[in-house]
Amino acid sequence: MSKLERLSPVVRGLPPSGIRRFFDLASQMKDVISLGVGEPDFVTPWRVREAAVYALERGFTSYTSNYGLPALREAIAEYLEGFDLHYDPAHEILVTLGGSESIDLALRTLVCPGDEVLIPEPTYVSYRPCAILAGATPVAVPTTVEDEFRLAPDRLRAAITPRTKALVLCYPNNPTGAILTEEDVQAIARIVMEHDLFVVSDEIYAELTYGRRHVSIAAVPGMKERTIVINGMSKAFAMTGWRIGYCAAPRDLIEEMVKIHQYTIMCAPSMGQVAAVEALRHGQADKDRMVEKYDQRRRLIVKGLNDIGLRCHEPRGAFYAFPDIRSTGLSSEEFAERLLAYGVAVVPGNVFGAAGEGFVRCSYATSAEQIERALERMARFVQAVRPV
Amino acid sequence: MSSDSHRPQAGSQQAGPHPAGSHHLEAHHEAAGDPSRRECAHDQRLRLSVLQLLHENSRRSPETIADMLGVPHEVVARLIRQLEEEKVILRYSAVINWDKVDANRVTAVIDVRVTPQREFGFDAIAERIYRFPEVRSVSLVSGTYDLQVVVEGRNLKQVAQFVSEKLSTIEHVTATTTHFLLKTYKADGVIFDDQEGDQRLVVTP
Ligand SMILES: Cc1ncc(COP(=O)(O)O)c(C=O)c1O
């Protein structure tokens, strides 16, 4: 038996991230304008960084409670009230290494081997592998551009089997920018309750919506008990590198999740937690300023993409435009690869699931000037490849 | 041109189908009750947004600004013309780090104390000062001094000469304190030697 053959078949069976391959390609190119980045272009607001520096100076360097700093959990609980979510900071909130760890904890806690986990696609790349690692079978539920990539209730219903255990929701959505309306959420909640499913609701982009407020499914009566809400500091407060996220759920679920967290992680970084308190307590104005900028760039890129003939629905959340590139006759990967030669990096939509084929993800977490320059290059590219 | 000549456009914008992403402006005027007040608030927000975007980068075209704000191109073009006519926008200029091109150039901030004149207050004295071309800015300030004057010169001597021969000899000027600027770190919201580049990887999930 070779060394590799002796390793875990589950891990070996995981496909490598589609983003990785594309990252390697893009990294070799010079003078690329990247619309491929899934994180804010803003540096963490200075007041937040300054608070962390101060904490370090005072020697704030030890472990915290497994659940996270009490002050942070209180700040989180208060913050979640703004989304009509009510959680007890002492027992119903767990601070994790980014939202990423919460995704892993949630799936590992909820599923048993053989369970099916419904994942509306296109979506963020972590849910499927985390479900597989937890021993579950991920089941893609396609969403379509006709529905602006919102999860359609009848598609959800059609995907449910007796083995379905949980539904993953990622709204506002990476990569499509879709958000759910109040009615969508109500309809989905009804089906979920009817079939006694759990929901893992990744609301990491909840602050980044344009014109409409984010609606959390956990706020629907009867849903809190079966929902794990995931959120974090990364996107709203431009704090990706700090690795601070959290989940909120009923006490019995948190108590199970915290066991994994306690044995594998101990606690989230203490300086980061202090910084997060500052961001939640005093970072509103900084956040609003960033959201206003994203909104301006969003309009610019959506208009620009439509003008060059790449049909683009209006993304109402996150910081991604997800234009339809089928008119070029290219696949998502061909499009993204060949566009690199014109000096623009975008991410092929199929990386986010089969339903993303025919689309590419363009992040507008970059300056308006860069977006305009990228659009000029893309216009030249589309001109050159468009079938006559 | 009447001061509200762009209003019909902004108004019909509200009534008609919204272009992608005009909610931001919409969401705000839902707050106020009566329609004309709402429209006013909308206009005011639009003016401020346009000015903000120009202040960040005055080379942005009216078309880009309009696209960023989700309003028709003509509305922004007209609004900018109007802001120029009203002298809200006085000039378009660049933020320059002069230290990098001209090591001798000096800037001094001068605190000036004056005895205000009957009838004219401080204005007449301020005018006598700001007419000098080497004066970059003059402001009336609260505190120990009355006017804050910023003077620029080709070298130290030139500025010193200006202060001793021109400024302190003006009638009603009773005292001056001159501070030469040694290094500019940030001006007009721009950090001059910003070490914070974009550290992000080119592609991330
Ligand atoms: C939808 C979604 N969830 C979670 C994450 C992970 O974020 P973090 O672990 O930094 O909180 C990301 C990051 O790109 C994301 O897009």
UniProtKB/TrEMBL annotation, chain A:
An individual GO BP term: amino acid metabolic process
Q: Which Gene3D superfamilies match?
A: Aspartate Aminotransferase, domain 1, Type I PLP-dependent aspartate aminotransferase-like (Major domain)
Say if the entry is tagged with keyword Mitochondrion: no
The entry's keywords: Aminotransferase, Pyridoxal phosphate, Transferase
Q: Which SUPFAM superfamilies match?
A: PLP-dependent transferases
Q: To which protein family does this belong?
A: Belongs to the class-I pyridoxal-phosphate-dependent aminotransferase family.
Say which domain of life the source belongs to: Bacteria
InterPro entries per the UniProt record, alphabetical: Aminotransferase_I/II_large (IPR004839), AspAT/PAT-like (IPR050596), NHTrfase_class1_PyrdxlP-BS (IPR004838), PyrdxlP-dep_Trfase (IPR015424), PyrdxlP-dep_Trfase_major (IPR015421), PyrdxlP-dep_Trfase_small (IPR015422)
Q: Where is the Aminotransferase class I/classII large domain?
A: 30-377
Q: What is its EC number?
A: 2.6.1.-
Q: What cofactor requirement does the entry state?
A: pyridoxal 5'-phosphate
Q: Which GO terms describe its molecular function?
A: pyridoxal phosphate binding; transaminase activity
Q: What is this protein called?
A: Aminotransferase
